Amino acid sequence: MSDRATTLGALKSSGWQSLPVKEEIRRNAVQRIAAGQPLFAGVLGYEHTVMPQLENALLAGHDVIFLGERGQAKTRMIRSLTGLLDEWMPIIAGSEINDDPYHPASKHARDLIAELGDGAPIDWVHRDTRYGEKLATPDTSIADLIGEVDPIKVAEGRYLSDELTLHYGLVPRTNRGIFAINEIPDLAERIQVGLLNVLEERDVQIRGYKIRLPLDVLLVASANPEDYTNRGRIITPLKDRFGSQIRTHYPLETETEVAIMRQEARPASVGDFKVNMPPYLEQVVATFSQLARGSNQVNQRSGVSVRLSVSNLEVLGANALRRGLRAGEKIVVPRVCDLGSLAASSSGKIEIESLEDGREGQILENLVKAAVLTVFKEELPFEQVRDVLAAFEEGVIVHTGDDVPSADLARLVAEVPALRAPVARLCGGDESPAALAAAVEFVLEGLHLSKRLNKDVTSGSGAATYRGRS
Predict the structure, then answer these.
(1) Tally of structural domains, the chain
(2) Best exposed site among 58, 94, 310, 445 by fewest CB in 10 Å?
(3) Torsions phi, psi of 242, nearest 5?
(4) HEC profile for the chain?
(5) Do 329 and 390 share a domain, yes or no?
């Protein structure tokens, strides 16, 4: 920052040029697209759907509204747009609305330049401070967004007609930046009217002041499709002023959901205690969410957020860690017996549609079983487990549960040779007792859900016994 201009004259001599914020974003977006780089990192699954639409909107200089259910990265994309701004931007020192040194808008900036000319002081603001955000609530007022008379300034002796008595709202304070309104249908219709000038004429009018405050803002909003009819609506003139409306969606493929889970979930390992999450159980967690999104017993209007998958993966790892701590195992791998813990992390994120009270737990349990069976069929062809069934028909009985040490289950691989091939396929080279135990339990549960093994569950304890059907 030491080589930055500190006065208006020095800024002019440096050759710095003023650009509208949409042109600035467009220029930086062009550079990234031409270089084959994504607009921003950390948003997965939108490469061929949402991102092309967003690129079009930014290249066209449009204000944007993102339309989609909860947990579809709308806010993350909006906040990431700041990465397309220049890192530093000059303003007139002391300006509350980021006055352009070449085109001052506020009375403070105009007076300062009139008094000092090229000696007017310059400050530099970082792109992160050029972002403003408001969660739309029914009590949001015009004063919050646009501005109001500041009674403190009036009490200090200024006249009401003095423009310096104004207290600028969030939108003017984000001048030459990006302003976002989340859940815009929740904004009262009379307040939405106050945004019409911002989107079209690019100015604001405050109370009865005879001023025209030209603003340079990229306005971005988010909404849930159901909000158009249930909680509120976006008035037609306001919708008409948004240049682009972009529809978001949940991950279309299980692999994408797994990648998001790995990116967002907090690691379960703590200190010397390590939790290794097997890929097939990651698939189970992701498939659980995918099945919930297609279930007629789940309220699809409220959506099934990716946060469900992230929370479930974290709880699955946490339950395995707790089991390992009690068993004295420093390396643990989540097992089928840990999947019961998903009820707590799923209940608050899925709205069940059922005519009978108290069926929520059963519906969630059935979704977990369906996810396990789906992944089992994908991972293990029947040819690989046919010999395992033969061993159980000859009298093999296996006990599983939280209190069964990993070493006990791992010994089954040696005692039942038919288990070696499917377990090796699931473990992917990990020969630790914890990994072998998790794979054995997954194979047995998959065979039970395929109706090829019997399973007796001890109520309350989570312990289970697998045996042949004959």
Answers:
(1) 3
(2) 94
(3) -75, 130
(4) CCCCCCEHHHHHHHCCCCCCHHHHHHHHHHHHHHCCCCCCCCCCCCCCCHHHHHHHHHHHCCCEEEECCCCCCHHHHHHHHHHHCCCEEEEECCCCCCCECCECCCHHHHHHHHHHHHHCEEEEEEHHHHEEEEECCCCCCHHHHCEEECHHHHHCCCCCCCHHHEEECHHHHCCCEEEEEECHHHCCHHHHHCCHHHHCCCEECCCCCCCCEECCEEEEEEECHHHHCCCCCCCHHHHHHCCEEEECCCCCCHHHHHHHHHHHCCCCCECCEEECCCHHHHHHHHHHHHHHHCCCCECCCCCCCHHHHHHHHHHHHHHHHHHHHHHCCCEECCCHHHHHHHHHHHHCCCCECCCCCCCHHHHHHHHHHHHHHHHHHHHCCHHHHHHHHHHHHCCCCEEECCCCCHHHHHCHHHHCHHHHHHHHHHHCCCCCHHHHHHHHHHHHHHHHHCCCEEEEECCCCCCEEEEECC
(5) no
Q: How far apart are CA 424 and CA 440, in angstroms?
A: 10
CATH of the domain at 223: 3.40.50.300
Distance (Å, rounded) from C-alpha 377 to C-alpha 369?
12
Do 203 and 81 have their domain in common? yes
Q: Is 213 exposed, middle or buried, given 0-12, 13-18 or 19+ CB atoms closer than 10 A?
A: buried
Residue 201, domain extent: 8-247
d(CA 279, CA 257): 12
User: Do residues 241 and 300 share a domain?
Assistant: no
Query: For the chain, how many residues are written?
Result: 470
The owner of tokens 């907090």 is 266
Specify the pLDDT at position 198.
84
Amino acid at site 227? D
pLDDT in tens, 150-209: 766 666 666 656 666 777 889 989 999 999 999 998 888 888 988 888 888 887 777 666
pLDDT (tens digit per residue) in 51-92: 999 999 999 999 999 999 888 999 999 999 999 999 999 999
b/e burial code for range 304-315 (CB count within 10 A of at least 16 → b): bbbebbbbbbbb
Q: Is 331 exposed, middle or buried (0-12, 13-18, 19+ CB in 10 A)?
A: middle
Report the chain's C-alpha Rg in angstroms: 30
Q: Taking the model in full, what pTM does it have?
A: 0.87
